[in-house]
Design a protein that fits this description.
The chain is mostly helical and 323 residues long. Helix 6 runs parallel beside helix 9 and helix 6 runs parallel beside helix 15. The longest helix has 27 residues. The protein is globular, with a radius of gyration of 20 Å. 45% of the residues are buried.
Length: 323
C-alpha cells in the first residue's frame, strides 16, 4: 500500500521540477500507479489463502526483492545511525503496518471491494486527526468538516445493513466494513510513527526493513493460530508474487517517483479515483454490483477528503483565475 500524504507534509511535494519534464508522461505514470495500486483488492480475492498468509508472503517476497539494495553499504550505515527511540518507532511502525494489512485483507474477503476501498480512502482524514492527537497539530475548521463528512459517509455505507430490507449478507458484511475502518486507522498510525524515520532512512532501506519486519509479525501470528505456510494452489502463489511486485513495489515506486514532479496535495486528492477503478474491476471479475449506498457513501468520502485539502484547492483555483 502507498504512503498517505496530508497537508502537513506538503513540503515534500516539489512541483517546480516538473518544468523540465514532459508533464504528459509524468501524469500518465501517476495514473498508471493509481491503477496498479487500486487492484490490490482484486488480487487478494483471487488468492485462496488466509489474511495472515497473504500478508506474510506478500511482504516477505517484497522485502526479499528490496533487501540486496536496502542492506548494502549505504543501507547498513543508515541503520547504524538510528538511536534507541528510532528503533522503537521502527518496530511500532512495522507492527502497525502488519495490523493494517491484516485488517485490509480481512475486509476485502468479507465485504464488497467497493466498500472496502471507499472506507480505506478516508485514511488522509484519519492521518490528519492522528497528527492532532500525537503531535498536537492545529485543528482547523477544514479538519472538523472533513471528519463530519467522513462520519456521514461511514453511516451511509453501514446503512445498507441496517435499512435495506433486500440486502444480502453474502454481498457485504458488517464485519468487513469495520475491518476496513480499522485498516485505515492503523495505516495512519504507521504513517505517523514512521514520519521522522523517513527523513533518516532512504526509501529502499525504510521499505525493506518495514516489509521484512511485517513478514516476521505475520509469521509469528501464523504459528500461534496454526496457519499453514505452504500447500497453496498455483494461482494463489501467483497472486502472492503479483501482490508483492505490482501494488507493493511497482505501484508504490512509481507513486513515490511522481512525488518529485507533482504537487503532493494534488496526488493525495487524486487517490480518490482508486475506489472507482477497484469497483469497476470487481463488477466485471466478480459480478459485484455498485449499490446506491456505496455510491452515496463514496460521494461523502470524496467530500471529506476535498474538505481536508480545501485550502490548497482554493489557492490553486485563485492562482489560475487571477489576471
Amino acid at each position: 500500500m502507498r504512503q498517505s500524504l496530508n497537508c502537513s507534509e506538503s513540503r515534500f511535494g516539489t512541483g517546480p521540477k516538473s518544468r523540465g519534464i514532459d508533464d504528459l508522461m509524468i501524469n500518465a505514470a501517476f495514473f498508471i500507479s493509481l491503477l496498479i495500486l487500486s487492484q490490490a483488492a482484486t488480487l487478494i480475492r483471487f488468492a485462496d489463502a488466509s489474511s495472515l498468509a497473504i500478508c506474510f508472503w506478500r511482504l516477505a517476497i517484497a522485502g526479499a526483492i528490496l533487501a540486496p539494495v536496502a542492506f548494502g553499504r549505504t543501507g547498513r550505515t543508515e541503520l547504524r545511525r538510528l538511536v534507541r527511540s528510532d528503533v522503537w518507532h521502527l518496530a511500532l511502525s512495522g507492527f502497525l503496518l502488519f495490523v493494517h494489512f491484516y485488517f485490509f485483507f480481512r475486509s476485502v474477503q468479507e465485504t464488497s471491494i467497493a466498500n472496502s476501498t471507499i472506507l480505506f480512502s478516508l485514511n488522509p482524514v484519519t492521518t490528519a486527526l492522528g497528527a492532532w492527537l500525537m503531535f498536537r497539530e492545529r485543528v482547523t475548521s477544514h479538519l472538523v468538516v472533513a471528519c463530519a463528512l467522513g462520519f456521514v459517509g461511514i453511516v451511509v455505507l453501514f446503512g445498507e445493513q441496517w435499512f435495506d430490507s433486500s440486502f444480502q449478507s453474502t454481498a457485504t458484511s458488517l464485519h468487513g466494513n469495520l475491518w476496513s475502518i480499522a485498516s485505515a486507522t492503523c495505516f495512519s498510525g504507521y504513517i505517523l510513527t514512521g514520519k521522522k524515520l523517513r527523513l533518516k532512512l532512504s526509501n529502499s532501506t525504510f521499505a525493506s526493513t518495514i516489509y521484512l519486519q511485517t513478514a516476521v509479525y505475520a509469521s509469528i501470528a501464523m504459528l500461534i493460530v496454526g496457519d499453514r505456510f505452504t500447500e497453496y494452489t498455483p494461482i494463489t502463489w501467483w497472486m502472492f508474487v503479483a501482490l508483492a511486485v505490482f501494488p507493493t513495489l511497482l505501484g508504490h515506486a512509481v507513486f513515490t517517483y511522481c512525488l518529485n514532479y507533482l504537487d503532493v496535495n494534488f496526488m493525495s486528492c487524486m487517490t480518490l479515483i482508486e475506489p472507482i477503478f477497484a469497483a469497476i474491476a470487481a463488477h466485471y471479475l466478480f459480478g459485484e454490483p455498485m449499490s446506491h449506498y456505496a455510491a452515496v457513501g463514496f460521494l461523502f468520502t470524496c467530500a471529506s477528503v476535498v474538505a481536508l485539502y480545501w485550502p490548497w484547492i482554493n489557492s490553486r483555483f485563485r492562482a489560475r483565475v487571477r489576471p
